Every structure is written in C-alpha cells, then in structure tokens.
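Input record (one chain):
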Amino acid sequence: MTISVLTKVQRKINFAINIPLKVFKKPKSKDSVTSDLFPIRNDENWATEFEFLNLPGLIRGDIASSHKAKVVFFSDDGIELGRKDLEINGLGRSTVNLKDFLKDGLQGSTTFAVFHERGGTAADLGESFMAERGYAGYKYKSIEVKGYVHGNLDAVSYSSGIIKKLGNSGFLKKTYFVQHLLTGPADYDFIVTNPTSKKISVKPIIEVNGITKKFKKYTIPSLGCHTFSVKIQETEIGKIKFRSYLYLGRPVVFRVAANSFDVFHG
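The corresponding structure, as predicted from the sequence alone:
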C-alpha cells in the first residue's frame, strides 16, 4: 500500500508536535521527592493497601535501617484532606493497610501520594529524584487473591512541606486507547487522575460489537480523579478510548466479574 504525500506530511507534523513532549515536569527544588497519585478504593466492598519499600535503604545498601515517609491524601476534587507520617523499622518491605488511616476526616480520600524522607541519600541520587511509583494492592469482598498495580507516572513532588504538580497537558487534544479488549460479563471502572495544575475535560468513547457509543465529557479538577464505569454483557466485546488534553491520559482499570476481579493499567 502506497502512503500518500499528505499522510506523510501529517505524520511528520504529528511526530514534531508530540515526540518532544514531556509527560511530567522536572521538580525545581533539588531536594524534592516525587510520587504517583495512587487510587483508593474504600467502601464496604473494597480495601486498599500499599507495598512500602525502604527506598533510602535500598539506595544506601542498608534495608534493615528504619525509614520514614509521609502519606498525603486527596479527595476526588483534588483537595488535600490530610497527611500521615509513617515509620517502619528494620524491614526492607512492609504492607500498609490504608484502612488504618482512613478516619478522622480522611474517609473521603480517593487518591494518595507517598513521599519518602531522603535522609542521607542526596549524594547517592546526584541529579535524580527519589520517586515512589510502587505497588498499590486491592482486595475485593471475600476474594482471597489481591490485585496489584504500579504507579502511572511522577504526578506530584514534595519539598519543605510544599506539594507541586508535575503533570503536563497540551493545547491539542490527544486520544489514549486502552490496550485491553472489554469482555463480559463484567463491570469496568476506569480511574483517571489529573496531575496537572489546571482542570481537564475527559471524554470517553466506547465501541461495543462494532457500534460506537459516546458519553458526556467530565471535568477533573487539578489533583483530582474521576471514575468512569461501564457494564459489558456476556455477548459483548468492546474497546474504549479517552480524549483529553493530558499528555498521558492512561487510566487505572478495575474489572469485576462474578467471582474474580483484576486491576491494571489500560
């Protein structure tokens, strides 16, 4: 198949615009630490955990040392609800159950970030920044097997008590195609976070058995998140994409069937 001159020109323009883009900004402060915005599922059906690693100890080669971190919780409107200090002694890895934190005004949390204390690792890091993009774990009802998903991107940074937004967005809309065929019977939840400094409109478009279904766009405030839900029947196979100004509008996907569930990046 011969590619037309117009198509070649369009591709070159598209590459010139999109390839140089940085999905997230570099923190300005040299002592910043960064984190993803991890989704929280917190109701009668769900429990959320986090696999807490001793990142400073791993860098120093001393994972048996005590390590500290600050867990910051946000609402779906991007409002910071509170901060909790976390200290674990003598372990390289620990599982933290967030239900222990989600009280006293934090019940409405829908995302969280984890900022490690740098300690004496500044010289070891050089020009790099310590980043928490680890694994959040989810448990659904009485299903014994948990689901885990790692961080999407460096969404926020922390330095001297101040949180900065690292996400980028552009002036041209971009389409993110979820790399998963929707199969039924199952309920799907697609959670998109907004790590930018401005509100972002997102429009989901689904194709089910060859028929396209468009839904109303929704707006996500800065540092907020939104859950888009859809049910897929047994005889249906679908594809979904999200249109927004985000450089990386990749959702965290939860698929719940009759006796199982899964969580993954789309």
